[in-house]
Design a protein that fits this description.
Helix content is 49%, strand content 10%. The protein is α/β, with parallel strands linked by helices. The protein is elongated.
Length: 464
């Protein structure tokens, strides 16, 4: 920050002396580079000191500096001098009452701020900025947020601190006002305990239904605010590592914690053999009718959100299947005695919410079958971490694995296996890393169907 000087800072004589000094050195162009370099050196060191170097001096610079220092410099070399030396010579001229610092300020017609001075001013300015917000916002979460951002303890708060460091105060105010409004809106949405589509929530907060889309400037602040509220136990806790994940479904479930969703029609779960109850306590007729008719259903999130309780038809065991082809084949093979959920690869929000409700019935055995490849094992690990009682087929059935295949895993896919650490899956992961050949569900269908007949339908553990 620089401030222009004027004669109100000095007596008339002093002001005239400084004006004369400024005119004197400005008229001699050979001093231009020297004064610029001395100014930068003073700003950097916060005091008069250090040396400057004039490379490839022109004729004017050579003559003026030689005359000023009463020293003949080499016309073909560099000119070096210290700021202290320049000030000592200045004290021997008619401008002796002026310090070099004062001379630099009148030369550039500004109050020069050093790095040290700027640093102290920014610290004070930042503290005043946050203090104003703390005085304005007394609500618990808003106050905690302001303090956390001030202390750099909140992920993403670096953006605001950069704006303050750059003195972009208008942008800093916009950022802070938006996040505080977001906290208020999310808490209000949470208190409603009724679902709202994200575009309508975005319209409420940003006056733009697309204002919270993934590619919009406010998206990261929106995500960060939700994550922070969860760490403050404003809402229920999420599954392990949820807050650090950035996948689409992790984000969708984060939204779900605040009764928000992007799409409740195209987001659906594929199920077979279930019954349940709605929020009003009435039996869900369409679930029961589908089960009795031996029909598979694609249930949109909109309908899953209406369900209060779900259990398998006639308390059958439940098997989660990774892909739809195998799911359809199993429906043809087992029309009675077992219930299925297809997760379609990485499970979406509708699928996770449906399984959450099924999982509440601890008497219902849960099993999972997926491809024997890095992606399949990672899906299995995410599910078994979320549902600890889930039994995956790969803990005891790695001997199904056949290495005869034309497919070979490349290194990027092999490296994914380094993230497998669940006890049910470590053995399978090591086997896959060793042989580097994937094994897909279609290849072991007959063996899996035998497992279903021999143990799963009988509700026996496959881990023994």
């Amino acid at each position: 920050m620089s401030q222009s000087l004027n004669n109100q800072n000095y007596s008339d004589d002093d002001y005239q002396l400084r004006l004369d000094a400024s005119i004197f050195f400005h008229e001699r162009k050979g001093f231009d580079r020297s004064f610029t370099a001395m100014r930068e050196k003073y700003i950097s060191l916060s005091h008069i000191g250090g040396n400057i170097t004039i490379n490839q001096p022109n004729v004017e610079e050579y003559e003026e500096l030689s005359r000023y220092f009463s020293k003949m410099y080499n016309k073909n070399g560099t000119i070096q001098f210290s700021l202290k030396a320049f000030e000592e010579v200045l004290q021997q001229t008619k401008f002796q009452r002026i310090s070099l610092k004062e001379l630099l300020e009148v030369y550039f017609n500004e109050k020069i701020e050093t790095k040290e001075m700027k640093s102290k001013r920014l610290v004070m300015q930042k503290e005043q900025f946050f203090q104003r917000y703390l005085e304005k916002y007394q609500e618990e979460y808003a106050s905690l947020w302001i303090q956390g951002v001030r202390d750099g303890e909140i992920s993403g708060s670096n953006q605001l601190n950069r704006l303050l460091a750059q003195e972009a105060m208008e942008q800093a105010v916009i950022w802070m006002d938006f996040t505080l409004k977001m906290i208020e809106s999310l808490l209000r949405q949470l208190s409603r305990q009724s679902y709202k589509r994200l575009p309508f929530f975005a319209q409420e907060v940003t006056q733009d239904p697309h204002g919270l889309d993934r590619n919009e400037i406010n998206y990261n602040a929106f995500l960060m605010t939700m994550q922070w509220l969860i760490t403050q136990e404003a809402v229920g806790t999420l599954v392990e590592n949820q807050l650090n994940e950035t996948t689409l479904e992790s984000t969708n479930e984060l939204l779900n914690q605040f009764y928000l969703y992007k799409d409740d029609i195209a987001n659906f779960v594929s199920v077979y053999g279930f019954e349940g109850f709605l929020e009003d306590g009435k039996q869900c007729e369409w679930l029961v009718q589908a089960a009795e008719a031996i029909s598979a259903l694609n249930v949109p999130l909109r309908e899953v959100n209406r369900l209060e309780k779900i259990h398998s038809y006639k308390n059958q065991p439940v098997v989660l299947i990774e892909n739809s082809g195998v799911y359809s084949q199993l429906l043809s093979s087992f029309s009675h005695g077992i219930s299925f959920i297809c997760v379609h690869g990485q499970p979406n929000l509708a699928t996770l919410k449906f399984i959450d409700l099924v999982n509440k019935n601890q008497d219902t055995p849960l099993y999972y079958a997926g491809d024997f490849d890095p992606e399949g094992l990672l899906i299995a690990q995410n599910l078994v971490k979320r549902y600890p009682r889930l039994q995956t087929i790969w803990q005891k059935y790695s001997f199904w694995y056949q290495k005869e295949s034309t497919s070979q895993l490349n290194m990027p896919r092999i490296n994914k296996l380094k993230n497998i650490n669940h006890p049910q899956l470590i053995e399978a992961s090591k086997l896959l890393q060793k042989n580097r050949v994937p094994f897909y569900q279609e290849q072991f269908m007959s063996a899996f169907e035998e497992l279903v007949k021999d143990k799963i339908i009988k509700k026996q553990s496959i881990l023994e």
